[in-house]
Design a protein that fits this description.
Length: about 270
């Protein structure tokens, strides 16, 4: 008698299934969808309507502001969303049950990464379409600039996602997670040049912001959407794309180490 054993799905297949499941769950949460997808658009409407002057010859403030909102959107989707979502799953015992199944732990994290990538891409496209249609934002035409946009966005999403997973262990309960994560995200947005020109901030704020990924994400994105002449208005007098890459890679590595050493599948009361 011959035994026929079904082949076990590979890690990639399981990860894709988990990613689809995570995305479906996200789309079912109206609050998460509205806040994540529409908040940047709402900010464009408010700031784009108030600040209508030029910040550089031929460059409206909206052209600068949309860059900051793309960066803030990447951080919100990766860092803020996961730092709030994962503690909720931990509190409900979902992580404990997943850990007790034969599913490799990596599948859970692959699913989160795929969900963040999908949401971040959709949010960015929505934001750009809206900004181009209603606020005169112009898109780059050079292929090299779109390549820069791609690697800055991917490194930005990766660093924010890893930091979000790691930071999810800070909140003691699901209820306290928004109170812990949201103020940090807001402070970083204000000191990283999202709402106003970065060089208009006090020097000490600029120095603090330079320690975190968001400042470098926004700086890299500015090199894509703003004219080359505006590079002279950066603190170093250039876009510093090599440093942008190094800092974001460093945060990816740091975030990975923190994930591996601090992530908890159970609450403290579970032991």
């Amino acid at each position: 008698m011959t035994e026929i054993t079904a082949a076990r799905p590979g890690l990639l297949t399981l990860g894709l299934r988990q990613g689809r499941s995570e995305l479906t769950r996200f789309l079912r949460s109206r609050e998460a969808v509205v806040f994540t997808m529409l908040f940047p658009v709402l900010m464009i409407v408010i700031f784009g309507s108030i600040f209508t002057w030029e910040i550089y010859p031929g460059v409206q403030f909206s052209q600068y502001f949309v860059v900051g909102m793309i960066g803030a959107g990447l951080m919100a989707t990766g860092f803020q969303n996961l730092a709030i979502q994962i503690p909720s799953e931990r509190d409900r015992g979902e992580l404990k049950r997943l850990r007790g199944t034969p599913m490799p732990p990596a599948v859970y994290f692959i699913g989160k990464v795929l969900m963040v990538l999908a949401v971040a891409a959709a949010e960015t496209v929505l934001l750009l379409v809206f900004a181009v249609a209603f606020y005169g934002v112009t898109l780059p035409t050079e292929v090299t600039k779109w390549l820069t946009f791609a690697w800055v966005s991917l490194l930005g999403v990766a660093s924010c996602t890893l930091c979000g997973v790691a930071f999810s262990s800070v909140a003691r309960t699901a209820r306290s997670a928004p109170a812990v994560a949201t103020p940090i995200a807001l402070v970083l947005q204000f000191i990283s040049g999202v709402f106003i020109k970065f060089t208009q901030l006090p020097d000490w704020m600029q120095q603090i912001a330079a320690l975190f990924p968001l400042k470098w994400i926004c700086q890299g994105l500015r090199s894509v959407f703003l004219p080359a002449g505006m590079a002279a208005e950066e603190p170093a007098g250039s876009w510093e794309l090599d440093r942008v890459a190094m800092v974001l890679v460093a945060w990816c590595l740091l975030g990975l180490v923190l994930c591996l050493t601090t992530f908890r599948w159970t609450t403290k009361r579970d032991g």
